[in-house]
Amino acid sequence: MLTSYILITLIAMFGHSEDFLGTTLLSRPLVLGPLVGLVLGDFDQGIVIGATLELIFMGNIKVGAAIPPDVITGGVLGTAFAIMSGKGPAVALALAVPISILAEMVASGLFVFRPVWNKRFDRYAAEGDYRGVERLHILSGLLKPLLMGVVTLLALLLGSEAVRTFVDTIPPWVHSGLQVAGNMLPALGFALLMNLMFNKEGAPYFFLGFILTSYLKLPMIAIGGLGVITALIVTRITHKEQPPAGTDSDFDDFDMDDNPPVMVKPKAALLTQGDIRSLFARSMALEANFNFETWQNTGFAYTMIPVLKRLYRTKEAMSRALKRHLQFFNTAPHGSTLIIGIAAAMEEQNAREPDFDEESINSVKTGLMGPLAGVFDSLFWGTIKVIAAGIGSSLALQGSVLGPLLFLLIFNVPHLILRYKLTFIGYETGTRFLQDLSKTNVMDKLKAGSSILGLMVVGAMPATLMSIRTPAMIGSSDSAVALQGVLDQIVPNVIPLALTFLVFYFVKRNVKATYLLLGLLLLGFLGSVLNVFA
Amino acid sequence: MIRLLRIDDRLVHGQVALTWTPAVGAECLVVANDKVAKDDFLKMTMNLAKPANAKLLIKSIADTVTFLSDERSKPMKILVLVNSVQDAAALAGALPEIRSINFGGIRAREGARAISKAITVTDADVIVIRDLLARGIELEVRQVPTDELRSIETLL
Predict the structure, then answer these.
(1) CA distances (Å), A344 to each of A327, A349, A365, B111, B148, in order?
(2) Is A41 left (phi over 0), alpha (psi -120 to 50) or beta?
(3) pLDDT score for A253
(4) Number of domains chain B contains
(5) Nearest-angstrom CA–CA distance, A78 and A172
């Protein structure tokens, strides 16, 4: 048993290393669940539990510094306890939800604690000691997997028996209540996603997704494909070429020559292709030392170090550069390499031209980090992650190992290609790339298209990923008709759809997610006891 | 009408585009900032980040007051973004319509202390905050709409 505990702890530590691994979704329950299942000898169960937890935590995304419940610790422990006690997904979620909320407090504590190192980072910067910066960035980053590893191991050692005894005392009617409640919880995830994208213009695409799955029984992958096609057709037809993407009239007299921080790649480069590639590789550890005071600052400095080493030979120049890049920074990690590439080009120019305005490097960084976070957060969290999770969970719920695999591929193939390319685009074309982009309506098309695609997939979710039925009968005992049969003839899957909209209504009214979660649990429980839902 | 006045030193970014704009149903984002209004580069970056279904206006504080006082802006659902407590106070002083201010993010600066995960204040900020509170304006701290709403009074 101890071996299993240690292996499960290692899985949790691997998950908590996500900040070294470029936010590649390796830490999501859909991926870690099967791994825990493998350790405990029930791979299939691990896949199904992982998918169930993925659905419930689907709406929890990391935007800016808003930290969602810790699904890594919650997911790993919930899956482990459920498999060890021989119970299914219902027990996993009953445990994962409270654990993830508690674990989030521990992780947040670490983010509050980390600024303690900032004085030491400043000292290294003053001495031009880039090795010190690298070392401390990594060491501080390792604290998270270590700390959460200890938490996981302790929970397993101290909690397993207690959880097993507790779970065994759960009477069957409570267990079936939990099961129904668990099947209802994804409605919260869907509603939180809808809250990000649902609006009047988008509503038809949501219902298109619903109808395609509910009536035509199309699988999620088909919805993804049709969504891409629909998005392409719609954005090409309805969005005519217009003057600058901005609706602001000031943009008409946008004069490029007046922009001080325009960067174009100089002719003879001081940096090698290898240097630029290492920017991409190092950007994976951008968030390793994430903290609540200066956010991703040490990650940015860490990423830039290969370039700085190449460009600055004196202690003074290195010291100034390190100080520059240790200033507050925060952006969406997936698109961070664009800013990193631009910063590298500006550093190169600075090294070449003695009268270059060093301050402009940071003003470009801070000018870009917010807006680009807006662009890439929407694209990756609002669209690509949604499609990956929709397709991945729908396959995994049937126990297919393709679920977690496709989940990772659908997200990371575009993510890593774009992240790699953006490093070079940023370095080679500087801010001109953005200026050219702002003169076209590519961004508008991309945003409109990705919201269409996202909404179609979300619309397909209640029908494919939630199974709530009613065992109720209508009419007197002799001529009683199953209500579900009647519903299926009119609108199949109408119950999951209605539940999703009910939760969405409350989300719109700013009811806290925790209350909604408890409300859904209660509704499922009562529904099961009163034989209204099954 | 103004659906939300938010203090956020990154102005338009992920939390704003992805969560607040849909949450308050904003059709129009107004970035009220004297520096950005004069900086074409920053304007360009913000235009890239604006949410697909909303209009983005970037104006100086004075122009923002003019715009928001205009009757024609009344039917629009507007989300106003400023990057400092002082700018928020300037708008609240000129526009009696503002009864609530959202504190989204103010990064660590020289002489500022942290009062929550994402908010730091200087002594000068605190004076302005006390003054706003004395005028009965609600000051709430939330990064994203689903965060628990906390009054700034309890954090000072």
Answers:
(1) 16, 9, 11, 31, 39
(2) left
(3) 37
(4) 1
(5) 20
Global pTM reads 0.87
Q: Is B31 on the interface with A (CB under 8 A)?
A: no
Look at A378 and B17 and tell me if their CB atoms are within 8 Å.
Answer: yes
Contact check, Cβ <8 Å, B18/A63: yes
CA distance A234 to A463: 24
Q: What is the pLDDT of residues B106-117, one digit of tens each?
A: 988 889 999 988
Is A373 in Cβ contact with B50 (below 8 Å)? Answer: no
**Nearest CA to A524 among A184, A190, A188, A191?**
A184
Task: Classify each residue of A35-68 as buried b or exposed e, where b means 16 or more C-beta atoms within 10 Å of its C-beta.
Answer: bbbebbebbebbbbbbbbbbbbbbbbbbbbbbbb
Is B13 a known active-site residue? yes
Q: And the tokens for B15? A: 């939390």
Beta bridge partners of A53: none
| Residue in the block written with tokens 């715009």 | B67
Tell me the CATH number at B56: 3.40.35.10
Q: Give the residue among B126, B81, B116, B23 at the shortest CA–CA distance from A198.
A: B23
HEC-encoded secondary structure of B20-55: HHHHHCCCEEEEECHHHHCCHHHHHHHHHHCCCCCE
Across the interface, which of A64, A196, A513 has its CB nearest the CB of B22? A196
The mean predicted confidence, pLDDT, of chain B is 92
Determine which one of B3, B6, B10, B13 is catalytic: B13
Contact yes or no for B78/B2 (Cβ under 8 A): yes
At position B28, the amino acid (one-letter code) is: C
Q: Each residue's pLDDT tens digit in chain B (156 positions)?
A: 999 999 999 898 878 888 898 888 899 999 999 999 998 888 888 888 888 778 999 999 999 999 999 999 999 999 999 999 999 999 999 999 999 999 999 988 889 999 988 899 999 999 999 999 999 999 999 998 878 889 999 998
B35 to chain A, any CB pair closer than 8 A? The answer is no
Query: CB contacts < 8 Å between A and B, how many?
Result: 154
Do A299 and A288 meet the contact criterion of CB atoms below 8 Å apart? yes
Q: CB B149: neighbour CB atoms within 10 A?
A: 12
CA distance A345 to A349: 6
CB-based contact, B154 to chain A, within 8 Å = no
Q: Which two tokens stand for residue A443?
A: 């961004």
**Cα A290 to Cα A144: distance, rounded to the nearest angstrom:** 10
What residue has token string 């060093």?
Answer: A358
- A109-162 per-position pLDDT tens digit: 999 899 999 999 999 999 999 999 999 999 999 999 999 999 999 999 999 888
pLDDT in tens, A391-435: 999 999 999 999 999 999 999 999 999 999 999 999 998 888 888
Domain that holds residue B30: 2-154
Joined together, the tokens standing for residue A330 give 């925060």
| Rg of chain A over all Cα atoms, to the nearest angstrom | 25
The shortest CB-CB distance from B56 to any of A64, A247, A293 is to A247
**How many helices (H) and strands (E) would you count in chain A?**
23, 2
Beta carbons within 10 angstroms of residue A444's beta carbon: 19
Residue with tokens 């400023």: B82
Q: Is A304 exposed, middle or buried (0-12, 13-18, 19+ CB in 10 A)?
A: buried
- Report the distance separating Cα A197 and Cα A199, nearest Å: 6
ipTM value greater than 0.85: no
When scoring A63, A339, A369 by the number of chain B Cβ atoms within 10 A, the one with the most, hence best to mutate, is: A63
Residues 6+ apart with CB under 8 A from A419: A22, A280, A283, A334, A335, A336, A337
Q: Domain coordinates of chain A in residue numbers?
A: 203-239+441-462, 474-529
